[in-house]
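re: that complex we talked abt at group meeting.

here r the seqs, copy pasted straight from the sheet so there may be weird spacing, ignore it
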Amino acid sequence: MQLFTGLSLGMLYVLLALGLSIIFGLLTVVNFAHGAMYMWGAFAGAATIAITGNFWLALVISPLVIGGYGLIIERGLIRPLYGRDINYPLLLTFGLQFIMIEIIRIFWGTSDQPFSAPASLSMPLEIFGVFYFPSYRLFLIGITVVICIVLWIFLEKTNLGLVIRAGTRDPLMVRALGIDMRRIWWLVFGIGSALAGIAGVLAAPIRSVFPEMGIAMLVECFVVVVVGGMGSLKGAILSGIIMGEASSITTLFYPQMADIVIFLVMAVVLLIRPSGLFGKAGLLE
Amino acid sequence: MGEILKTINLTKNFGGLSAVVDVNFVVKKGDLQSIIGPNGAGKSTFFKLITGELEPTRGQIIFFNKDITSLPQTAISHLGIAVSYQITNIFPMLTVFENVRVAVQSRKTTFNLWSKAISHKEFVEQTRHILEQINLSDFKDEIAANLSHGHQKRLEIGIALATQPKLLLLDEPTAGLSPMETRQTIELIKKIAQDLTIILVEHKMKVVMEVSDRITVLHYGKLLAQGTPDEIRNNEEVRRVYLGGVKI
Amino acid sequence: MKETGIGETFGLGNRELRVEKVGWWQRLVELVSRNPLVFIFIFFIIFPFVVPYKALATQIIIWGLFALGYNVCLGYTGMLSFGHAAYFGIGAYTAGIVLIRLWQNIWFSLLCGLLMGGITAFILGYLCIKRRGIYFAMLTLAFAQLLYFVGFQWVDLTGGDNGLRNIPAVPLSIFGLSINIYTPLRFYFFVLVFVASSLLAINRILQSPFGHVLQAVRENDQRAKSCGYETSNVRWMAFVISGAISGLAGGLYALYLHFVGIESLYWTTSGQVVMMTLLGGMGSFIGPFIGAGVFLYIEDTLSVITPNWMIFLGPVFVLCVLFFPAGIWGTIKDLSTRRRK
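got the structure back, here u go
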């Protein structure tokens, strides 16, 4: 059962790590505001439910809103920084997330927001009459898989996806072919943000919703991405699952180490494979 | 023999691309050897293999009878190989003087945290000497990024000279220079060639013909021909492939 | 080439002479940036009498020292670290724990704080230093968080969530005298001694052969390598120095508060020093102190009005990143030199 919880936690990691990786892989930008976007996704979901009472609507609206926000941010704040040192977008998104947290604090206060799963998913699912699985976590796992498949189809089978993959491997070449990468970057940043947003609203029923919820998640997401290999989507998925499981299993057996275990995994992985599981060596050296 | 550098079957593959293929290359002491070849022939890659920036896929590099094939860049620098880059590779925000001085210092000390760097007179003297050689003494207090392109290329060479190399690799030192600046650089190269062994990569055939003792031609990563300027000039294959049948 | 403004240009071969009028404030800025230490010392002597309350001055110079140490890493070596809370926090906890459990001697406790900061940087540096840029930033953040969680759990040593409490106010023993340093003004000058010493030490290091190599490595790591410098070792050493100074700042902070909170290891502390350094200006002595001063002053003034004071500082920081990456001091210097080129 714990394995199952680990898997659902892993799915959240996967969604976040995918968003971060996809942005990093193409734009070489580390979105420090990724955690805050996750948090805003949860709050956007809460707001939608407060207005409409419909969880499924929240599931659709959240990523759209956060994705749209990401588009605005990229265009307005990040694009001006492209000529400069690669540290600048990181610093900017770092400052941005403080603002995002503070805005939520002002409008929603600092305590937890109640957020419950929709009734249809609140009953445990019975399998073989013997095991009871929390339906919501099952749903979470399922929908993440669906999202991953959709993403895979998009990247592998569409023209736009082809351009994105090419741009990750050889940005100069793509530009030489006359394709305006800036639009693509803009779009990808939006997609990555949307992924963070949907992770937020999906996480909301099973984790507390409060302004700082993205902070710890962000650091964990970084660890997942580093272990998976920066810019690698396969790595993000695999690493997310591993880390989710590691964290859950440790909570069961050795709770004090639960927070620490993902860092230890990271340290070990880095010593053996410095570029992460699927990372390309020489990236950022 | 007088050979100071020798490569044996040197090969470098990047995935599916073979940049350098089975190159057997020799440089004699005191020579000025030029490497020519069309773009993409593997010249820059070849340099990077020698300086240790890239690791060869196969083959060996021998320098003064020592196998340096898998040595790191820093060790190779201390053995006496220096390089001046095609794309200007200086320390942009440091002064011209400091650019050279810090290169001079590399031979002696890195982790001295206490004494004042300027108080090391021998570094200062050597720096002045090199600045005179490359004719940039007037600019010693200028920020390197503010120099003209031509001056920056001379600074490039100065940084390489500052490490007291036995073998100097020059990658297109006259690229982008005006005819007058090219002439100045040629004179500089001739001057330093008196005391050093040099490998030169160049596109300007006149320069190559004028300064070289020997010429090597690379084509698609393979060594096409090696010989004196006259031999190369008269080599049929070279003319066809590289010079396009044009008489020089 | 930048325009000369009200200058005139005489061409003389490849030399150019400019004759121009230079304002008094440009001369002042140039004078200060050429002799930063003198001005800093003079200013800091009168500083506590200029701010609303003396404890604020003490906070500013402690954080300024932390930012100075951080600046060695970012400004002088070019490495963006997001995990410097580790060294500050460990320095603070070490000093506190030494005073509580080991030996009630202030000099020793601060020395331990400094050393532990350096040793931690030595170890973490080894794991992180081979990577550059963003990868490095993320690794430093991750390892600092690791230390935070360890500190959080190790309640026996650190007090966990409650923090390390009741650090004794040990009198300073010097030349056989025992002095109580815990009045606001006295403590300020006590801290100032360490700040001044650190400034002198860093100044010396920057002027040393190592200091020059450090700046070359920042300017062009690859070129420095081709000159034969082991650049990762150079950066590693700078990282250790940076960690040691941060540890000293942490120790001083522990003595100041008589308390060490777990948040001193949290990444918000790392973030705060990053913001101060960027705000004030990297690559100078004055910048970090200006950054600390501005940051803490704004926090102090605004937090009385609203707990959401970050809503003002956040955009200021973002604007800095976008338009004034040189920070306050850096921008002042740029403005003043635009006329004299």
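couple things i noticed - Residues 179-193 of chain B form the longest helix (15 residues). The interface with chain C takes residues 51, 53, 73-74, 77-78, 82-83, 89-94, 98, 101-103, 105-107, 109-118, 120, 138, 146, 159, 162-163 of chain B (CB under 8 Å).
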